[in-house]
Write a structure and sequence with these properties.
There is one protein chain. This protein is about 35% helix and about 30% strand. It is built from seven helices and nine strands, in the order αββαβααβαβαββββα. It has a single domain, classed as Glutaredoxin (3-Layer(aba) Sandwich), CATH 3.40.30.10. The longest helix has 16 residues. The strands form two sheets. The chain has a seven-stranded mixed β-sheet with strand order 2-1-5-4-3-8-9. It has a two-stranded antiparallel ribbon with strand order 6-7.
């Protein structure tokens, strides 16, 4: 019985992402990556996106998985709210990168409302400590809000996709309210 309890605890720990390593105040690593917006191939640059205002950078494990579909759909539904805050949303994944063009335009996921970046081998995710423990070549579900100066404003890491949009939108609103 004790072995079962220990095994269950270990399995839970491995399935849960660690708290985000980048904390508010840290400098976000800059990157460029291939990606897609509404099915069209684009080159994404965090530095370029930050010139327009805050950026929500959200990592997700893989296109076309249940939680990732839901999270992308929720970000898509909130796209106008982020635009009203002059904020760019960028999704990043290391999983199923061969399906990102389709994922980026699918009305059940991104709906063409924001760009998604391909991160084969989780190179970007590793810089952000957003790697899935059980699959280190995949990104986990971690969201960052980054200020135009490249400073991390907010970090949220939880496999449950339901709060990532609320958490990041509230952080953006708080940041913008302080700037007014």
């Amino acid at each position: 019985m004790k072995r079962i309890a220990i095994a269950a605890a270990v399995a839970t720990a491995l399935a849960t992402p660690a708290a985000a390593a980048l904390k508010p105040g840290d400098k976000a690593p800059m990157f460029t990556a291939p990606g897609f917006l509404a099915g069209d191939a684009i080159q994404l640059s965090l530095a370029e996106a930050l010139k327009k205002g805050p950026v929500v950078l959200y990592f997700f494990p893989s296109a076309y998985t249940k939680g990732c579909n839901l999270e992308a759909h929720l970000f898509s539904q909130a796209a106008d709210q982020f635009k009203a805050q002059k904020t760019t949303v960028i999704g990043v994944t290391a999983g199923a990168v061969n399906r990102l063009a389709e994922f980026s335009k699918d009305t059940e996921t991104c709906g063409g409302k924001f760009a998604v970046a391909a991160d084969p081998g989780a190179k970007i995710a590793k810089q952000y400590d957003a790697v899935l423990t059980m699959k280190p070549d995949w990104s986990d579900r971690t969201s960052y809000v980054i200020a135009p100066n490249g400073q991390v404003l907010h970090a949220y890491s939880k496999l449950d996709p339901s709060e990532h949009v609320t958490q990041t939108l509230n952080a953006v609103k708080a940041f913008n309210a302080k700037r007014r």
